[in-house]
Amino acid sequence: MDRVVLLLSVVSLGVSAQPITDGQRLFSIAVSRVQHLHLLAQRLFSDFESSLQTEEQRQLNKIFLQDFCNSDYIISPIDKHETQRSSVLKLLSISYRLVESWEFPSRSLSGGSAPRNQISPKLSELKTGILLLIRANQDGAEIFPDSSALQLAPYGNYYQTLGPDESLRRTYELLACFKKDMHKVETYLTVAKCRLSPEANCTL
Asked: Is this structure's pTM higher than 0.90?
């Protein structure tokens, strides 16, 4: 009798856990993809910094700290506490917008090496994956209720013909912003994924 009860308990647990397993699998794929993009962004930025003179690095870093990334117009949590208080759907929606904001600018990052040429297709795959997660978690709510008000400006003068100094600054800012945004998306997706595990500690 005890064996029968135990068997039924295991079967019931397996059935009830199936949706969580599917959700975790989708999240795992998305997190893996953004981790790859974040590591790639870090490597590209590090390689670019290594090619600069010390004074160039100092000046560009100083300018960047006073400037803004295009994606700063996307409203997102201001710190880790707000991130942890945000709903799964909110974190997914912000992540989607951040990834989407790089679809066009990422073309400027492509070319010259195999890793650079991975950026645009990897972003497209990640965007599709996040959209699937949003649809699975929206529960009838509108995905982007305020999307009509969101009009991101083009990435400054990134597509104009520039002099050597401005071109250097443009590349630095583009790589720095890409690294920053991929870190944000990785954080948001990791926290959202953690929410699917009730026993997990999602502290950042």
From this structure: no
